[in-house]
Amino acid sequence: MSSNDLSFAGFSGSPGANLPALRGHNTALVLGLLRAAGEEGVSRLELAAHTGLTPQAVSKITARLRAEGLAAEAGRRASTGGKPATVLRLVPGARHAVGLHLDRDELTAVLTDLAGEAVAVRRTPLAFEAGAEQVLATTAREVTALRARAGGSPVLGVGAACPGPLDHTTGVLHRITGAPRWDGFPLRDALAARLGLPVVLDKDTNAAALGLAQDLPQAAGSFGYLHLGTGLGAGLVLGGSLYRGPRTGAGEFGHQTVQWDGPRCGCGRRGCIEALCLAAVARGDLPAAARALGVGAANLVELLDIDRVLLGGRTVLDHPDPFLDGVTEALTDLARTRGATGAGGPVPVALARGGARAVADGAAELVLAPLFGARGPGLRGGPGA
Ligand SMILES: [Zn+2]
């Protein structure tokens, strides 16, 4: 199997995403259960019970996964059938993925194993607004350095996350606030050509939300991830799945107008939550910034009936308490006016796991999640794809 052969998970890597072969789909289900079981592992009978596959089909798949180095025996344990069952586990170091967070002034790059654990992390200044050549050169340098840390095991691909709006399916950037020169640039394909690896591109907020969704029980749970850094956006996980919308433009949370005669926003309109929030941060009025964020969070909860709100991004991480307090207060007010205190109370607010690495870790998940049964458009570009 070559370093870019994703066929074991059913991805052709070609645009238009053929339906994954049944073999690939079932393999992804098995891999997903192996990943979820962690070190403890899972027996073939348990795999059969959870996938609905026959024990023979499971044995065939697990034999192939072992031959490819992706699964290994993890001992034996007593089973109800009498003889002890062999337990299998994922071999996390068998493959790696790269996650990139292209922020306006900084690049964070992580190398993760198959379990999504970071093996190596690099951070370097980046002038995103300076344009493509500088960004591609910096990225290539960092990815080369990370690949050296993979210990010879194949790197499956690169997940790249940057500010939106962008088209996730074509990998083309749209008009990013503060960086209009990128409008129409095919960043995914340019990165794939430069790196020689398959690349998947998504918004920073979506990547983080996808990473955070790995904590959810399968096919359940909804949350909004609000990212306040150099801009403000949201990643939405609804019913267990990342919601991108038909044009992959969902989550432009920061540009909802909350004050129609308010200050001019970088997007060209007035009174956007992002403009109010960033202006308050700039003048050091964090409670006001948190109130603006809270208004948006309450709107989101009203609109989508989500289970929880997670906060992240550099500005929040620098001063978590005022933001947690402000958003909690807004959602408590909302619950009070809706009479919801008897029905579970206000929607809870928490800091997103992962801190400053939430977006880069989630970007690696853009590569990994589809291999483990999560639906996605798959990887594009790179040699042989
Ligand atoms: Zn705006």
From TrEMBL:
Query: Which superkingdom?
Result: Bacteria
Q: Which SUPFAM superfamilies match?
A: Actin-like ATPase domain, Winged helix' DNA-binding domain
InterPro entries documented for this protein: ATPase_NBD, ROK, ROK_cs, WH-like_DNA-bd_sf, WH_DNA-bd_sf
Pfam families in the record, alphabetically? ROK
Q: Which family does it belong to?
A: Belongs to the ROK (NagC/XylR) family.
The protein's name is ROK family transcriptional regulator
